[in-house]
Amino acid sequence: xxxxxxxxxxxxxxxxxxxxxxxxxxxxxxxxxxxxxxxxxxxxxxxxxxxxxxxxxxxxxxxxxxxxxxxxxxxxxxxxxxxxxxxxxxxxxxxxxxxxxxxxxxxxxxxxxxxxxxxxxxxxxxxxxxxxxxxxxxxxxxxxxxxxxxxxxxxxxxxxxxxxxxxxxxxxxxxxxxxxxxxxxxxxxxxxxxxxxxxxxxxxxxxxxxxxxxxxxxxxxxxxxxxxxxxxxxxxxxxxxxxxxxxxxxxxxxxxxxxxxxxxxxxxxxxxxxxxxxxxxxxxxxxxxxxxxxxxxxxxxxxxxxxxxxxxxxxxxxxxxxxxxxxxxxxxxxxxxxxxxxxxxxxxxxxxxxxxxxxxxxxxxxxxxxxxxxxxxxxxxxxxxxxxxxxxxxxxxxxxxx
Length: 402
Description:
This protein has helices at residues 11-17, 23-35, 115-118, 137-140, 233-236, 295-298, 384-387, and strands at residues 3-4, 65-70, 82-84, 88-96, 98-110, 119-125, 133-136, 151-152, 156-159, 163-166, 170-172, 175-182, 188-200, 209-217, 247-253, 256-266, 278-282, 290-291, 310-311, 315-321, 329-335, 341-343, 346-351, 362-371. By secondary structure, the chain is mainly β.
C-alpha cells in the first residue's frame, strides 16, 4: 500500500465502402444553490406568454461559496507544485461540510515515461472507507495508453501542454478527500494541481455520489484464434445473445445512473478491432436491456471511423495511430449526458471484443456513474507493471502465438 505523506467490419459494410460525460443531479444541486437568493425573472406575464428560463440562467445570483485547493507555493514564490516520491501518496483535497467538486486540473513533470498509468487518482466522499474513484490518472482523462494527445469533450479535455481537465460535478454531503498515489518506481518532481469546488449549507435530497472505476483485459480472451480476418466464418458466424464472455466496463449495485466511459485499445491482431456490440443489463435483466450494433456505433461513429480521428462534445475517437494492424492504438469516449442510463437495483455495462468475442486485443477502460452509497466493492486495481500497455502474442491474424 502507498505510504501517506499527507469499417465496423462485417464484410458487407467494408465491401459497401469499397475499401474501407447524470450530470443532471449535480446540475439540479447547483441550480438549487443559485436560486436560493434569486432575483425573480418577471413579476407577471400575459396569458399564453412564455419566457425561457435559459434567458436568465447566467444572470441568476449564486449563493454558494467558491473555493480551490491547489499546489500554489505557500512561501509566496513560484514553486507552485509538489513532489511525489515513488510509493507515496499526496492528499490534494481534504474538506468537511457539504459541497460540490466542479473541476479537476493537473499537469505533471517527471522522468517516468509511464506516469499516466503509474499515478493513481482516488476520491472518497462523506467519510467512506473505500474510494468512489480509483483509476490511473491518465485513464481518468481518457489517456489510457500512457500517451498524451490534445482533445476536447463535454466532460474531459486535454489541453496543451499536457494539461488534464475534468468537469464532472461531484457532490459531497459531509466530507471530500482526493489523493494521488505514485505506484511507480520513479519520483515525480512536480505535480501541479487545482481542484475547484463550492461549499453549501447542505445538499438537497436525491443526489447520487460520483464514481469512476478502472478495468482492463490485457489481453481479452478471444473465443478463437483460428482465423485470418474479421469476415472468416470462425469469427463472423458465431452467435452471442447472452453477453457471455463480454468485456465488462462496469458492474454496480444500488440506485443511480451511468454517465459514460473511456476506452483505449491496443491491437494484438490485424484487422478492425471493433465489431463488438455493446450490451447493457439493467436491474437484473438476463438478456441485454440495451443492445447495440458495433463498437464504433456505440461511440457514435460508423464504418470503423474510416479511420479518421474525431472529437465532439458527447463522443469521439480523438486518438487513432497505426489502425487495423498489430500495435494499432485507439482512444475513444462516450458521454450519455443527453440521457444518462438509470438503474434502480443494478447495472452491468459490457461490450463484445470482436464479434461474439472473437478478438484478443488489450482493453483499458474507465466507467463513470452516479449512485447511492454504499457502492459495490471495486475489482482489485492491477499492479502498475501490469497496467503498462504492451502488445501480446495471442495468435490470430498478424502474429503467431508463443
